[in-house]
What we know:
Bound molecules: adenosine-5'-diphosphate, magnesium ion
Helix content: 40-55%
Amino acid sequence: MAQPQLANQGIAAASAERLTPTAMLKDQWNMVKELVAADIGANHAKSWINPLDLLGLEGMTLVLGSPNTFAKDWIENHYLDALVKAWKQVNVIIQEVKIVIAEPQVTVANTNSVATAPQIKVVEAFDSFEKDEPGSSYTGAPLDNRFTFENFVVGKPNELAYAAALRVAESSTPQFNPLFLYGGVGLGKTHLMHAIAWKIRQCHPNRKVIYLSAEKFMYQFVRALRYKDMVSFKDQFRAVDVLMIDDVQFISGKDTTQEEFFHTFNALVDKNHQVIVSADKSPSDLENMEERLKSRLGWGLVADIHPTTYELRLGILQAKAAALNTVMPKEVLEFLAFKITSNIRELEGALNRILAHSSLVGRSISLDTTQEVLRDLLRSNDQRLTVEEIQRKVAEYFNIKMSDMVSNRRMQNIARPRQVAMFIAKQLTSKSLPEIGRKFGGRDHTTILHAVRKVQELCADDFDFANDVEILKRSLQT
Ligand code: ADP
Ligand code: MG
């Protein structure tokens, strides 16, 4: 990880505010942003690089302004090298890049940016925020006591979301508002939201926190409408210090609730109260959501949780096994981490099934029993890709007929793609050689084995061919 390079390396430090970028520097900054995006990926660039302000040049150090310390730290640790590289490429004078905290240069109209300190409220127990009759308070959802920061295993795919969540929980004033967490199903969004709520209760017991799902928010909204109780509905939500709404994608489409959510949201943010939302997509990708709400949701920090990696899955399995006080053979954990790639919820489910099975039948856990107990689950993980799909894709790619995948024609421009399809079938499905052979017009398993070896050989010798195979594999895996 790149260490932050700090100021004052033999260069006179000018105050950042006094710098003004020249037109040339501005043009170069646009080029740098493109270079960095190509380097680190458009999404990361959009979240981290685009919000930076170009402040100017201090000697040989290019100075950029970041809206908050969290972003500054993160960029210094992750993207500084990419920034330095790109700047050096477009401007030979520049040797270093420095990031300072600066107010955003363009302020968006309509914000009440004067920070008001959060008021200390009389403690109101989370669960007493409960009601079903008109006239009493509106309810939050109960918190799961397993969903804490301590129980959250951090890895590359979720390190940003974790760091941001922890920062929000520990700070007494909002550092970024809202915090928008997003990622696919079962990757830990709800876990992190609960962890934030637990932590705030512990660090700032006076702050009034409410956590609820978007569905529940809508339900309560509709209820308030029915009981003509809108005033108290509004007051309740607008009186909290921290509002957390889980799965906010469910608010999309429902016009009146969207409207109410938008107003509640604005009211809280304007008063400098923290809002935290989660969703399955980034703000800009939310469907059926009004533009102004989408853009508003993207104002603070948008932190995504990526699909799991093998290392993270293994780490989670080890942590869960340890928490349950069970010893699991290493090969079983590795097998599960390798096979169950969909999400963490399914991974946990698999682990629980194996444990339940072993305690029921009183047998210790082995790789064999694991495969037996999870047969259906493993098959469904495999069935996501069929040999037919592979054949179709490969035929399309090499522009041959689907029927040639099972035919006996031996011309190389047909036989070669067929071998590629056999090779990929072996690599990406868990079918045996004879099973694959049957799918290719009843060929013998030795034919498949021969194809696998041939393709491996060709890949080693022929870069273009290897590239074709790689592209095909990748397109089939997504
Ligand atoms: P989401 O809300 O994104 O659909 P959840 O937060 O409900 O996912 O997570 C699904 C399950 O996986 C939960 O039981 C949660 O505790 C577990 N989980 C997710 N991420 C992690 C993690 N990094 N470490 C430990 N457990 C995790
Ligand atoms: Mg969830």
